[in-house]
Design brief:
Clc chloride channel; mainly alpha; chloride (chains A, B); 778 residues; CBS_dom (chains A, B); CBS domain (chains A, B); CBS_dom_sf (chains A, B); transport (chains A, B); two-stranded antiparallel sheet; homodimer; CBS-domain
């Protein structure tokens, strides 16, 4: 949508137009130094240059892609230097120890800080309580003054208060507070930290895959997101706090990584900390440390070595530990919705569980399409937030299931009916004409209360489905986990009660006869709610293992892992049938971030030269020559091209590649030319700073493949191969198909593959391939 | 040990001497086909050749390393072919569907089969029961005949039976059965399936890292291991059944993968199935599906893409589901040692937990060294098994804690004392002079029963420590999980009771005063046992995340994850301080398998040419030329060299690399020369079969680096860098340091790194580097 780019409000959301994607990524350098021995010292020398040559060299611009291999080389070189100095003095030894432990230190600090966001989770809870109590207070101070303090201590009575006057007053106050909180939240976000909106997970995925978004994980984002998250949740919008908490934890990780040069000066190492931080974020958001680690592994991270697994585990441990010390749920448990079911599940129940999985998959596919379609039409962020908040408040109030806090709703839906349960959902007809029937835990006929609850739940389901589509992606912090789980829990509870009543009235069916004894408790509707919640969340996010672990850590229902797994797998398969992207990948595409999904498998066959730039009718590739380039020529090239990096060749004649120089590094070097060691001032010749790698001398530059080129190509392919994928006209516009010299679109050649062996680095390897391409005339 | 190689019993255990390690691995082929377009069709043509050219081409010999990249290329080509044919006919479409689902099918089958090994776990249990009952029967038929049936139904009474005669008879029968079972087990292993011994995990790790051990996962191994595992456990040896169950599950996975050509013809794809199978194995061994997936990821697998994560998850799900249907523990739970603790843990308890972690780390380091030292001295497998079984039985019988089944012991140690607990460990002095004290759950003074139990437990601890060292690695199926956990559980329970008594007698200490109310239950000794078990297992195996997940899935103790994590991390750190290898890596080294640990980080600096073969005084590299080689020359090279692969060059003059041919492929091709397409019969010229890859033409062959070269080099480095590592004289002998032309050991050059960027494929990349090495004179 071209309107998006005109939106001055959130520049990064305007799509890729504002992101200079044309950077050249030179990665996967061959670190060999030619057959001769002479190259060795020069290579080391060049690496030395990167250490502290000029401030700024080796860093990256905003909205640029990092060079993983250069960062890894830098880190290895640093590590080697520290190791070799270690034995020189006690001070150096201490420094090496500090260096070795700084990884653990930074994840500990991150975990501690993330754990304290649990305080934040408490404050969310209390602010909601406060809002309710406050409106209660006001209503009753107008309605029946003098009884303030009674109702202050027991705000639950408010909604059952007598008379239509108090109800309307309540209604008004509910809407008023919702609007106020929503407005405050969106204003704060708009004024202080535009990056603080949304769930943050799509951006964190992009950042972890090696992209730079300055300020996205900064202190302002941290502060504003923490505050506005409370407001957004308090405003009653259909959103959760879990995704934003991951973002907040990553902000903590990013800020702490600046304390340690090992991490602050190395973007690749910093991403290890961020992976650990996102694990800690989920750990505190759900009280699920293992689920957090798996979430980081499966959903968020791009580069996840086993060392990061341990660090993430530790960060999640520390965060969970802090959470436990604060004890937010008041029950000494890490668990948010603690459930204990007293009956096992039976084999025939797999059928409704799989049905719930199908529902979750359908909901996920529908939600992703609808939400993306709506996000493309967004124009007026503040107005939109206010409108959605107003509609939410007005529609939500009459229905008790939509009026209450979503977490509370999920908890109620998960909880099994017991003798102490006073919920409307548990109004069964007692078979013994007494209350003892519950304590025996037998199935029973539903009383009218259950039927009215079912109606209200159905309405709440429709309401939540519609509102969540419009809410996710608003310019306030908005997570998706809790609303998705609520939708699934409602659907699951409805199915559960239906199956339960079926079992009660038809207990002689062969299915029920075999498993359910008459009078025994056979069906647990709360379990269906849990399975439904997992299925819906799975359909939306397409997580599998991590989701199951999070849900069972949430509920402590270890025995019910098989139903959870069945539902989540079904949900993923059904969802994938309608489009392979989860909501986060869809938002990444929507925002035009350069992200290559490591999970995708590329089976198409493309020649590298199909993707390579420059194409035949393009201007020739801008290259630098090694020795004979003057400063004026260099500045000329930089000012005339928009490339973010240039291959360095020996001379125009031989076209042999010797290195790769980033635009930013050259600009900085020109600015500080006096201190730049390879700059010879008198001759005005700038000996190009060859970053990090020195290839074998006989490689000829034919062209370059950037991440953007690959993304464009994939988009083109997708439109040929996947007719089911939603039509991204948006993208078609931005990435036009390539045209041959005759003006017609170039045909795709399908005989040699572009990608790629086996690893997460498949894209990088294909880049290397091309840079190693040889001129056949040689 | 040179004696090992003389051992005719288990050739594979004799070390690397029998393993022809000298194979040449050609991996990481650049798939580009030169700058010209002409290469494209020839490259595809060569790939076609690999499909079904000659039976046997593209397969591997026993004890050889697979070529990951070639396998991945083959698979991609196959996938592409199926995809392109898909639209041709309904039959082809069905075939493509079958192909797409065969991955899920094979993991489902594997999961089902692994789940049925749970039956096996049941049979282990029953066989032990049978042994005990049977000896009971015999004793009582000699001692007090006529009371058979009383004691048949209540065999627990036996050990409290009257008179020394019955005790001695009991003792004798116990030893007799132990010896019989042990002898039967070792005989079966020796006669039918020598690979069925040990835990199998070191070998599975090696296989998954890309090694071929024929028959290790075959049907004989499966059958014999299943049977002898029962016997070994029944013999009362200090071993567990968990590791062997993983091996059994991998056998199932391997056998089922032969049903699907996608997996049977592709060693890399087969390893994906094996990864899933090992997850299923842990899933059934411990009833821990998530732990199984993490175990596969962290400990066993080498190549673990996210797709394998889902498949493993699914296999573990199916296996857990089968386990649940069989319901082996009779409580509708997946959980082996189900524990419920009723008190939370307190912050000050972290100190004893960390102490337990230190103990676990020390035990692990000690165990690894002692066990490896003992394994190197092993000579007479059958005699050894008999001796160890005899000693175990004789020493174990008098102590009730060593006499009982180890799983039962762990269960007892984990269980908290409640009013219904009749164990000796729960004989506390009641404060109320009645039994009500327990139901109030308060701490109490230990009665003499507890003190005698502590003594017995201490003796059991020493016994278990000593016997486990001698038991692990015996030539019967022997797992390490249960004995390690038992040792940790005993130590933990002792510490737990000590802390509990400390809290009882000194409840006015500031620590206890703050947390423990007088009369309230404050310390849970069972929790200490659980933490200790995790710590000891962690010290031995050096697992972290997967271990915590397995233990908490075992026990269902979700709230106690923080203590578990603290203890396991401590244990790992302490253990790593004494040597970075876990027991499985140590056994891999002991057996001389070619395994490059992806977890290790290489910080040393070595020139590629330091590692490269041929060295200066070696004979020149055996190479094949592309076109002008006659059959006689080829056969000559093959008969004169022992290399397992040869670089293919254009001609002797230019030394340009065009491909790589495996010895096995060439031998097969010569044998079937009539059908070999590139063989021109009349000219007797053998146009060399260039497998899979065609490099850019200008690359010159200087030498080759094989996995063996890298391993040798690492061994050499280790002796310089890690003085703490155990002295592998064994290795020093086998891999002598390289000598320069002057006869002195060559100095190490420390200025350019050998390895390696960032991925699991670091070793392969360093291989590529060298093959890409250019002659500087070019």
């Amino acid at each position: 949508m071209e309107e998006d780019s005109a939106d001055p409000y959130l520049p990064y959301d305007g799509g890729g137009d504002t992101i200079p994607l044309q950077e050249l990524r030179g990665s996967n350098y061959a670190m060999s130094n030619g057959g001769g021995g002479a190259g060795a010292s020069s290579s080391t020398h060049l690496l030395d240059l990167l250490e502290e040559p000029i401030p700024g060299v080796g860093t990256y611009d905003d909205f640029h892609t990092i060079d993983w291999v250069r960062e890894k080389c830098k880190d290895r070189e640093r590590h080697r230097k520290i190791n070799s100095k270690k034995k020189e003095s006690a001070w150096e030894f201490t420094k090496s120890l500090y260096d070795a432990w700084s990884g653990w230190l930074v994840v500990t600090l991150t975990g501690l800080a993330s754990g304290h966001t649990a305080l934040h989770s408490l404050s969310v809870y209390h602010s909601v309580q406060f809002m309710e109590q406050d409106s209660t207070l006001r209503v009753f101070s107008t309605g029946r003054s003098g009884q303030w303090f009674n109702f202050l201590t027991c705000p639950a009575n408010i909604f059952t208060g007598p008379g239509p006057g108090s109800y309307i007053m309540n209604y008004f106050m509910f809407t008023f507070w919702a609007l106020s909180f929503a407005f405050l939240a969106v204003s704060l976000v708009k004024v202080f930290a535009p990056y603080a909106c949304g769930s943050g997970i799509p951006e964190i995925k992009t950042i972890l895959s090696g992209f730079i978004i300055r300020g996205y994980l900064g202190k302002w984002t941290l502060m504003i997101k923490t505050i506005t998250l409370v407001l957004a949740v308090a405003s009653g919008l259909s959103l959760g706090k879990e995704g934003p908490l991951v973002h907040v934890a990553c902000c903590c990780g990013n800020i702490f990584s600046y304390l340690f040069p090992k991490y602050s000066k190395n973007e690749a190492k910093k991403r290890e900390v961020l992976s650990a931080a996102s694990a800690a974020g989920v750990s505190v958001a759900f009280g699920a440390p293992i689920g957090g680690v798996l979430f980081s592994l499966e959903e968020v991270s791009y580069y996840f070595p086993l060392k990061t697994l341990w660090r993430s585990f530790f960060a999640a441990l520390v965060a969970a530990f802090v959470l436990r010390s604060i004890n937010p749920f008041g029950n000494s448990r890490l668990v948010l919705f603690y459930v204990e079911y007293h009956t096992p599940w039976y084999l025939f129940e797999l059928f409704p569980f799989i049905l719930l999985g199908v529902f979750g998959g359908l909901w996920g596919a529908f939600f992703i399409r609808a939400n993306i379609a709506w996000c493309r039409r967004r124009k007026y962020p503040v107005l939109e937030v206010i409108t959605v908040a107003a509609i939410t408040a007005i529609v939500a109030f009459p229905n008790p299931y939509t009026r209450q806090n979503t977490s509370e709703l999920i908890k109620e839906l998960f909880t099994d009916c017991g003798p102490l349960e006073s919920s409307q959902l548990c109004q069964y007809r007692s078979q013994m004409n007494g209350s003892k029937a519950y304590s025996e835990g037998s199935d029973a006929a539903a009383a009218p209360g259950v039927y009215s609850a079912m109606w209200q739940l159905s309405l709440a389901l429709v309401f939540k489905i519609i509102m969540t589509i419009f809410t996710f992606g608003l310019k306030v912090p908005s997570g998706l986990f809790i609303p998705s789980m609520a939708i699934g829990a409602i659907a699951g509870r409805i199915v559960g009660i239906a199956v339960e009543q079926l079992a009660y009235y038809h207990h002689d069916w062969f299915l029920f006869r075999e498993w359910c004894e008459v009078g025994a408790d056979c069906i647990t509707p709360g379990l269906y709610a849990m399975v439904g919640a997992a299925a819906c969340l799975g359909g939306v996010t397409r997580m599998t293992v991590s989701l199951v672990v999070i849900v069972f850590e949430l509920t402590g229902g270890l025995e019910y892992i098989v139903p959870l797994m069945a539902a989540v797998m079904t949900s993923k398969w059904v969802g994938d049938a309608f489009g392979r992207e989860g909501i986060y990948e869809a938002h990444i595409r929507l925002n035009g971030y350069p992200f290559l999904d490591a999970k995708e498998e590329f089976t198409h066959t493309t020649l590298a030269r199909e993707v390579m730039r420059p194409r035949r009718n393009n201007p020739p590739l801008a290259v630098l020559t090694q020795d004979d380039m003057t400063l004026a020529e260099l500045q000329n090239i930089i000012s005339q091209t928009s490339c973010n990096g240039f291959p360095v060749i020996v001379s125009k004649e031989s076209q042999r590649l010797v290195g790769f120089a980033l635009r930013r590094d050259i600009t900085i070097a020109i600015g500080e030319r006096t201190s730049f060691p390879e700059f010879t001032r008198d001759a005005e010749t700038f000996k190009v700073f060859i970053c990090t790698f020195k290839l074998t001398k006989s490689v000829i530059v034919l062209g370059i493949i950037t991440k953007k080129n690959i993304l464009e190509h994939l988009e083109e392919l997708k439109q040929h191969v996947e007719p089911l994928a939603p039509p991204w006209y948006y993208y078609k516009k931005r990435y036009p198909p390539s045209y041959g010299p005759d003006g017609k679109p170039r045909p795709r050649v399908h005989n040699v593959q572009l990608a790629s062996p086996s690893s997460r680095y498949e894209e990088d390897e294909s880049e290397e391939e091309v840079r190693l391409l040889d001129n056949s005339s040689l």
